[in-house]
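[audit] Reproducing an earlier prediction to check determinism. Same input, same settings, fresh worker. If the tokens differ from the archived copy the diff job will pick it up downstream; this log only records the rerun itself.
[audit] input (368 residues):
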Amino acid sequence: MSLKIKQDHNRFKQIVRGRIKNNMRKYLQKGEMIGKKGKDLISIPLPTIDIPHFRFGHKQQGGVGQGEGEVGQVLAPGNVQPGPGQAGEGEGEHQLEVDISLAELAEILGEELALPRIQPKGKERIFTTRLKYTGINTTGPESLRHFRRTFKQALKRQIAAGTYNPSSPVIIPTRADKRYRTWKIENLPQSNAVIIYMMDVSGSMGDEQKEIVRAESFWIDTWLRTQYKGIEVRYIIHDAVAREVDRETFFHTRESGGTMISSAYKLCRDLIKADYPPSSWNIYPFHFSDGDNWSADDTRLCVEILKGDVLPAANLFCYGQVESPYGSGQFIKDLRETFGDAENVALSEIADKDAIYQSIKDFLGRGK
């Protein structure tokens, strides 16, 4: 019976997984998933899943073509009292919340977008230590005494010596009976990563553009956290001046000034130099803007900073240009002209929420 239940449970999980995968494009448009979100689990909405089953009834209930009425009587809908609102033909959609781990959600994302596994750099240079118990010895500190092995050894000795009394089973270990765990220190390779999000918050970036950035950053975080043991996230906002902020401020700040993208790139460069040596860290700068920069001179300065400082240190630099009715959209053209063939540069134009699907694939599809 337990085996049957396990098989049915696995089958249901496969059905749920398939539904999530089929609706992935819709979920990608949401920055904050519907339902509760915990540290390792997230609740996502699914249409109610009906499992095929038999339903039994009483014999007296009748069958097809049986019941009240005469032969040839025209069938018509019953008298139904109208309710509030307009009538409709479709059935209401019932939502079912399903808990799923972020790791499994990332795995489904990777399958749907055909994302390759990331090959971290610096993984042979960063180590974390772990104690591994390797065996049992007759000597060692009392804190590592193996009580079950010690008791068993004392019991065997007393039985062999004829001193064990089953009616009064008192076991007294001697010094020779004591057994201790032995251990060794293992050095495990570990890869750390930092994501540096930069966003234009000038007057031309509205709430819709910020919502696109929020949705895309959620999925970027979800994927990268499955690829690295340790990950940090830093947030930079800029108009004509850049500053580092927390996550809440990053997504809810709106300024009205002009735009100097170089200010964000300078701060990003300074963060990398101060806290994240490229030999030990996997570095992912993401910049989102509507493509409107102050001047051609500032764009040239951005290119210099990228070439000289950011790109040599980064695994992948990603620029997402969110379409805005107020932005010129020129900046991505300048980046394509300069870095179009660079291996660690990914550029993406995000016209609306539907374009998030392809944008994530543009950014994460290189396995960098």
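[audit] rerun output stored. Observation attached for the diff report: Strands lie at 41-47, 95-101, 127-137, 180-189, 192-200, 230-238, 242-245, 281-289, 317-322, 345-350.
[audit] end
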